[in-house]
Amino acid sequence: MKKVKIALLGLGNVGRGVYIILHQNKEEIMKRSGYEIEISKILVRDLNKNRGVEVPEDILTTDFEEILNDDSIKLVVEVMGGIEPAREYMLRAMEAKKHIVTANKMLLATEGDEVFEKAEEMGVMFQYEASVAGGIPIINGINENLTANKVNELYGIVNGTTNYILSKMELEQLDFDSVLQEAKEKGYAEADPTSDIEGYDAQYKLAILASLAFGTKVDINDVYREGITKIKPIDMKYASDFGMSIKLLAIAKDDNGRIELRVHPTMIPETHPLANVYDSFNAIFINGNAVGDLMFYGRGAGDLPTGSAVVSDIISILRKNIEVENQNPIIRNNLWEKQVKNIDEVESRYYIRVTVEDKPGVLGQITTIFGSNRVSLKSVIQKGRKNDESHEVALVLITHKTKEALINDSIEKLYDLRTVKDIENIIRIEDFN
Ligand code: NAP
Ligand code: HSE
Fold first, then answer.
1. What is this structure's pTM?
2. What digits encode the pLDDT tens for the residues 231-290?
3. Model confidence over 142-197: pLDDT tens digits?
4. Nearest of 150, 159, 166, 153 to residue 131 by alpha carbon
5. Mutate which of 80, 108, 208 to test ligand 1's pocket (most atoms within 8 Å of Cβ)?
6. Least confident span in 60-74, 128-142, 300-314, 321-335
7. How many CB atoms lie within 10 A of CB 278?
8. pLDDT tens, position by position, 360-388
9. Which CATH fold would you assign to the domain 138-300?
10. Which ligand ends up closest to the CA of 109?
């Protein structure tokens, strides 16, 4: 049996998963890869931290140079996250002819070109399956198995933390903050959970997926982003009354060569398969012009599911000849130049919840504004006053399909009405047709 030495950069949630899988499934991994894998070094910040796994003390280090200068280490697994020093370490490891496996979507979505070019220049293999949707084989799915297709559209629930939070809010009527704490404890959330709840994590993942699916470079700044922090239990309740669920969707559509890229909370029919993706599960629904509709479903976060993708990438590298250069098929994402639509141009239906003064004529004022902006209303629902003393009521408006720019203009005009107390929430509705 051949032996190979590898190093991990990071032993947090994902690093732990990788460590456990490499030990628990040692026999299977040896047979499948043809190698006995030895983790010879692990880079961490704090040597004394309890990590939930028994790791021999002598393999932990805080000095990256020990890994870089050890020629017997052939492969480096970057699971530390963030841009720096992860970027610098990966570039230097590649210059030292070490193959790379990473789970770092933030880096790939923002500085991806530089690391891919370095892998090409040095002829080393570079795998990143775990960077999107944890254990779901979506990167290889798109890069290997869907290349016969022109991808028309892609809808993803690609953030486990927010899906966990929205699921608990919907099914157990729990409040946002307590559920976020649970997601952190389960190891789903990023080191800074703002990245999850404000949609940045999903934005990175959508940029990676769309660039592969559409064969085009995607600038992260062209991906529209909204998080889930404005979603209230009452929105969940209304959605349910309308036969809908609220999900944080990452949406990419190719509209005759112009693409839409957006991440935002979305009301979707509860009959759609994505509506039944709960907990930290992720799913990516893709339509290809040959294959039709496809859905990939699985755990999108957590130590073992993410570790599964990382270790599979390691095996995939070992199955090739690691001593020979240029074994990686370079997947180009600059095959086509595609213009990205501004969010103002996007068409959707909208759910708009407002608080208004409960007095005659208010409804008329509001519907006149939408009418004058050529926004057609499908329904208007008024619920009773909060209590006898209150002079305010909640109005929920559902529009027909319309351009975002017209909605924004209508909203600005609503703010000018003295009878409109607040625009509480606006959520796009996706009908999938
Ligand atoms: P984490 O729990 O915060 O672990 C990060 C690890 O990296 C820790 O062991 C930390 O060391 C080490 N580290 C960080 N900065 C370092 C530095 N400057 N020098 C040395 N060591 C450093 O993160 P994670 O959840 O495992 O995520 C790791 C990566 O996987 C990220 O790119 C993340 O986006 C991605 N990812 C995560 C998941 C998930 O479910 N968590 C899923 C898919 C992808 P100490 O422990 O000593 O502080
Ligand atoms: N924080 C991420 C999530 C981890 O919740 O999906 C997986 O990338």
1. 0.96
2. 998 999 999 999 999 999 999 999 999 999 999 999 999 999 999 999 999 999 999 999
3. 999 999 999 999 999 999 999 999 999 999 988 888 889 888 888 888 888 999 99
4. 159
5. 80
6. 321-335
7. 16
8. 899 999 999 999 999 999 999 987 666 66
9. Dihydrodipicolinate Reductase; domain 2 (3.30.360)
10. 1
List the CATH code of the domain at 343-429.
3.30.70.260
Indicate the burial class of 329 (C-beta count within 10 angstroms; 0-12, 13-18, 19 or more): exposed
Q: Flag whether pLDDT at 303 surpasses 90.
A: yes
Q: How far apart are CA 145 and CA 262, in angstroms?
A: 24
Is 205 in the active site?
A: yes
Find the residues whose C-beta lies inside 6 A of ligand 1. 10-15, 43-46, 49, 79-81, 85, 103-105, 130, 134, 187-188, 190-191, 301-302, 306
CATH architecture of 2-134+304-319: 3-Layer(aba) Sandwich (3.40)
Element (H, E) at 298: strand 292-299
Name residues contacting ligand 2 (CB within 6 A). Answer: 134, 159-161, 188-190, 196, 201, 300-301
Instruction: Please report the pLDDT score of residue 355 as a whole number.
Output: 93
13 CA to middle of ligand 2, Å?
11
Q: How far is CA 311 from CA 43, 128, 306, in A?
A: 17, 11, 9
Q: How many residues does the chain have?
A: 433
Ligand 1 centroid to 82 CA: how many Å?
Answer: 8
In this structure, which residue's CA is closest to atom 14 in ligand 1? 80
Domain ranges for the chain: 2-134+304-319, 138-300, 343-429
Catalytic residue among 168, 205, 217, 247: 205
